[in-house]
């Protein structure tokens, strides 16, 4: 946001991707850091920021204010 991205830019953090322990946090950029911290994600975690995140069927479409932690096991 400090470099010009809108605060409602979609973002996702994927912890331990493609493993049985994968966890995913979706949030708008303005809430992203706090949501990652709240979820307690650890390394390795891949972070994706931008419109590509909206292509995920797991992106929280229902409200602009929502964020979510998705655990896939």
Automatic annotation (TrEMBL):
Gene3D superfamilies: Methyltransferase, Cobalt-precorrin-4 Transmethylase, Domain 2
Tagged with keyword Plastid: no
Keywords, comma-separated and alphabetical: Porphyrin biosynthesis
Protein biosynthesis as UniProt keyword: no
GO molecular function, one term: uroporphyrin-III C-methyltransferase activity
InterPro entries linked to this entry: 4pyrrol_Methylase_sf, 4pyrrole_Mease_sub2, Siro_Cobalamin_biosynth
Domain of life: Eukaryota
Example GO biological process: siroheme biosynthetic process
Protein name: Tetrapyrrole methylase domain-containing protein
